[in-house]
Amino acid sequence: GNFPVITVDGPSGSGKGTICSLLARELGWNLLDSGALYRLVGLAARHHGVVLDDEDALVVLAAHLDVQFETSATQNEVTIILEGEEVTQTIRTEECGADASVIAAIGSVREALLERQRAFVSEPGLIADGRDMGTVVFPQAPLKVYLTASAEERANRRYNQLINKGVGASLQTILADIQVRDARDMNRAVAPLKPADDAITLDTTQLSIEAVLAAVLDQARHKG
Ligand code: C5P
Q1: 11 belongs to an annotated ligand binding site
Q2: What is the distance in A from the centroid of ligand 1 to the CA of 128?
Q3: Where are the beta strands (DSSP E) in the chain?
Q4: In this protein, which residues make up the domain named Cytidylate kinase (predicted)?
Q5: Peptide bond before 11: cis, by omega within 30 degrees of 0?
């Protein structure tokens, strides 16, 4: 489709997920959570007993992924169904994130997910959340945003999220996990995490969610 796309890329914990769902709600646009697709391939692999170094089997899973994203009427919540089973929360664990980042380093798996991601473009527009939205999947997007924040701040945010949920957590472990995932995502050969040449970079370390949202909406209006 020939509808506008706003790409939002950046490392985990940069606030992408929150900003993207607020943007989608504010503009009334559709949302692609591309990280969820990599997490879903990982979960499907577990379900089917496929190991993470079996590239051929992972490509088959990615190409045939049986998934539905169901958006509630209020557009605030997305329910994810994998092979008929609700997995909305299941794919959010640290294990699924780590599996996703291993799988995401395989070029043929990324290739298998490319058209599925592009098919999310629909009227009136798309907010695309990921690592390579601006560089690979939607290189023609009129507005590309790169969100970043210090690893310490991202670890703090994650720590507070878990504590608020009543889940015990260690800040040191979370920081170490974030650094491992950053290194893997930024240093891989295919579609590494980096800002597109024409992206606007926002460092959110010292910014509130409201301030980041306002800055992106401001850019969107300038481009519109
Ligand atoms: O954003 P999220 O934490 O859900 O992504 C999980 C993993 O999927 C990331 O660490 C990254 O390795 C991978 N990913 C990717 N390309 C995307 C989205 C996610 O490689 N567009």
Answers
A1: yes
A2: 12
A3: 5-9, 30-33, 67-71, 78-82, 85-86, 126-130, 143-148, 200-203
A4: 6-221
A5: no
Q: What is the pLDDT of residues 116-160, one digit of tens each?
A: 999 999 999 999 999 999 999 999 999 999 999 999 999 999 999
Residues 115 and 129: their CA atoms lie apart, in Å, by 15
pTM across the whole model: 0.94
Closest alpha carbon to 184 in 115, 116, 97: 97
Which ligand 1 atom minimizes the distance to the CA of 191? Answer: 20
Return the amino acid letter for 45: A
Three-point CA angle 171, 182, 106, nearest 5°: 135
Ligand 1 atom closest to 12 (CA): 3
Q: Which residue's CA is the closest to the ligand 1 atom numbered 2? A: 35
| pLDDT tens, residue by residue, 44-81 | 999 999 999 999 999 999 999 999 999 876 656 889 99
Beta bridge partner(s), residue 42: none
